[in-house]
Amino acid sequence: MVTLRNSTPYHTLLFSSNCLRDLQSDNKWRQGIGRGKLLEKWVYYYIRENASSFTIKTIVRKWSDVPKRFRTQSKIGQNGLFYNRKGEIVARGNGMDLAEFDLLYVDKSGQVKFAEIKSSAKNLKNFNREISYKRDILNYIFNQSQTHCLIFSPKKVRCILSPVFSSDPLVSFIDTPDPEKNQDILLRMPQSIGNDLSNELIYLSELSQRPYDYIKIHDEARAEILMGNTTWVTSELFRLLSRILLGSICEPGLTWLLKEKEICINGIRLSPQNFSQYFTAIIFSLSLPNLRPVLYLRGREKAVYLKLGVNSISGFEFENNIKSKYTTLCKWLDCLVQSCLSKDQVTSILEKYLLKETAILNRKHGATPEINLKGYANA
Fold this sequence. Notes:
- Residues 1-15, 191-196 and 358-371 have low confidence and may be disordered.
- 29% of the residues lie in helices and 23% in strands.
- Strand 5 and strand 6 (112-117) form a beta hairpin.
- A 7-stranded mixed β-sheet has the order 10-13-14-15-16-11-12.
- It is α+β, with helices and mostly antiparallel strands.
- The chain folds into 2 domains: 17-206, no CATH class; 214-376, no CATH class.
- The longest helix is centred in the first third of the chain and has 22 residues, at 28-49.
């Protein structure tokens, strides 16, 4: 159990107004978000003051330890580790945020390691996959054969997670106070750190990163998929990819897809007759690591994409909104609108991967979020 030493209250350095607002909200969901932020920031500042207790040589700065001049807006062409606009540590591929690291540090032997903070038992379904993906990214970037992960969580969360990682020697757990029961304790933060720890805090730029060309890796994988070859999936470079954007579906393929596969939004099934009323294109992609078929529908009026995933009856249903036209993913998708996947390519890929994905869907789907289709149609 991590033990908090006696300290005086210190809020300015640690919290944004949004974090405190979430903690004080009447909405339980917002409160949960606030408690998650609270524990994540508490762990960072606690370790920052007690690095020697964790055999840590240096800690990669984040949040208020990172001046604004080091923070970057995502843009196409960025590959590697960056600070985002909030001072958080993110891995990017062609400008897309692939993963966020709660904590990055270097141990006494010079190995780069990372830590994850889980404040509750919610959203744990793909957590082991997230850990594996982040490990693959760091293994490549820092040319390491293996990367250790430290998981900070309350005991009740650790009891759920530890069986999942019981056979993984590269994952360790440290118990923390439960933010739901110990919010007042966690709010008693240490005072701001001065120059005494300046040697233990480093910037991302001080780490030697192995360069990679994400778009080149992506396009090579895309070409292999379109040729029907899957032997490349074991490649080290493949593990850096989060998705493969195959291209826009041509009109014959689009007509076939809308006739043969159920694509529903708000109970409305899209058809060749009504599709153009709401949307201008469908970008076909495969989500990794399981090569799960995903569709991105481009709105006619709004510069926005709807993301649709496979459902349990071999059709597609709404997953989320790619809202901002300024996101790098939207810009990349826009570049693919003029590309063309033939009907044969679409049917071949769906035949190979759609049934496989449907077969492993053994969860019950909840209610689909409401989308106002009128906003996507011409006025």
